[in-house]
Design brief:
binds 8-demethyl-8-dimethylamino-flavin-adenine-dinucleotide, eight-stranded mixed beta sheet, D-Amino Acid Oxidase, Chain A, domain 2, FAD-bd, monooxygenase, binds P-hydroxybenzoic acid, about 400 residues, FAD/NAD(P)-binding domain, globular, FAD binding, alpha/beta
């Protein structure tokens, strides 16, 4: 058995784990990352596309914003299409100049992995049988790596291992409470090398269900359709996807839509989920390991980033100033922001999707709410403030 001693063992090399690693490295704090997949697999997962300003700032602080600055697309508004009519929500005007940036999660991950490789930091990719133990006393992480058994002895474990990870699952049942809502539909996503249908994102509420027109660059588009959970990707040829998307769009967008062969196609279920607390002795949960939001509000990756902002400064405060205040307040601070993002994501999902169980009355009420939000300055401001991201 190989014994490795370090200060922080980070489980998972998604955006949360990688960003924490980079911020600890910048502060000179010794750590390792243990990931069950290969670096190539992690960097190729197609997921989020929208970064809040605070996430962009954090990537800048971590010193990994060169590609983001060069290739990210700043957006100062979004369009909402309802009743066949598009309406623009001017995010910047309503939030004193704030905006969001279109930059793929794959790019964020690649930039962070590259910075990590450049700094020659220790990562165990394709680790097997990862286990976390003794996090109420002297934390240990054990795993099998390249034919050998390893044990990491550390002060803290950062559980950045996503919704299906091992960290949350290792917490004794009587110490944890979870809250969950599962939605009765999924998002079918298509990535294609065609120019986006519009300069800004279009969120579509239609009688046939929700759709979203997003992008990764000026030549790469990302589109989503609300589909029943019983559908399989194989049921959706490219042709069927584009036809259905056109049916949900307004005539102008339908006319402008450029279609082409998909380079990725997948169905993601929608879920709201929160774990309380987010700290268990010397084990901290961060990102999807602690909470999930439905993607409608574009908050998942951004919440992972805000957890890491709190956790990195708490650990830096602990090691550099000898103060435990940050680590003691970590869970409460994160959860305050998490629940607000949960509320916003639930509300956007509820407002824009078609629920099979909703009565005609419920449907009319929803239309009235959307119409109110879009016609009122106060309503639009509420949407804009949450969309660009609440302050830390
Ligand atoms: P991740 O990215 O899931 O990374 C967790 C890592 O942990 C590894 N792992 C383990 N490693 C070692 N041992 C184990 N036992 C392990 N178990 C798991 C995994 O292999 C993985 O590498 O979590 P993290 O870092 O917390 O990041 C969260 C984000 O990935 C997620 O919130 C976003 O992708 C959500 N999301 C969006 N967020 C946004 O902010 N804006 C968006 O526009 C947005 N769109 C989306 C999304 C998620 C989507 N899907 C597919 C769920 C659109 C979609 C369709
Ligand atoms: C994406 O581009 O993948 C995306 C954008 C906005 C969302 C969700 C996903 O709300």
């Amino acid at each position: 058995m190989e014994i490795v001693k370090t200060k922080v063992a980070i489980i998972g090399s998604g955006p949360a784990g990688l960003l924490l690693g980079q911020l600890l490295y910048k502060a000179g704090i010794d750590h390792v990352i243990i990931e069950q997949r290969s670096a190539e697999y992690v960097a190729s997962r197609i997921r989020a596309g929208i970064l809040e300003q605070v996430s962009v700032d954090l990537l800048e602080q971590a010193g990994v914003d060169q590609n983001l600055k060069a290739n990210g697309l700043p957006h100062s508004g979004i369009e909402i299409l309802t009743n066949g009519k598009k309406q623009r929500v001017d995010l910047s005007l309503l939030t004193k100049g704030k905006q969001v940036t279109v930059y793929g999660q794959t790019e964020v991950t690649k930039d962070l992995i590259q910075a990590r490789e450049h700094a020659e930091l220790i990562s165990f990719y394709e680790a097997e049988q990862v286990q976390v133990d003794d996090f109420y006393s002297k934390p240990k992480v054990t795993f099998h790596y390249q034919g050998k058994d390893y044990q990491i002895e550390c002060d803290f474990i950062a559980g950045c291992d996503g919704y299906h990870g091992v960290c949350r699952a290792s917490v004794p049942e009587d110490k944890i409470k979870t809250f969950e809502k599962v939605y009765p539909f999924g998002w079918l996503g298509v990535l294609a090398d065609v120019p986006p249908v519009a300069d800004e994102l279009i969120y579509v509420q239609s009688e046939r269900g929700f759709a979203l027109c997003s992008m990764r660059s000026e030549t790469r588009s990302r589109y989503y359709l609300q589909v029943p959970l019983t559908d399989h990707v194989e049921d959706w040829s490219d042709e069927r996807f584009w036809e259905e998307l056109k049916r949900r769009l307004d005539p102008e967008s339908r006319e402008k839509l450029v279609t082409g062969g998909s380079i990725e196609k997948s169905i993601a279920p929608l879920r709201s989920f929160v774990t309380e607390p987010m700290r268990f002795g010397q084990l901290f949960l961060a990102g999807d390991a602690a909470h999930i939001v439905p993607p409608t509000g574009a908050k998942g990756l951004n919440l992972a980033a805000s957890d890491i902002a709190y956790l990195s400064s708490a650990l830096i405060e602990y090691y550099l100033d000898g103060s435990e205040q940050g680590i003691n307040e970590y869970s409460e601070k994160c959860l305050q922001r998490v629940w607000k993002a949960e509320r916003f994501s639930w509300w956007m999902t509820h407002l824009l999707h078609r629920f099979e169980t909703e009565s005609e009355f419920d449907h009319k009420i929803k239309q009235a709410e959307l119409s109110y939000i879009l016609s009122s300055h106060a309503g639009q401001t509420t949407l804009a403030e949450n969309y660009v991201g609440l302050p830390y």
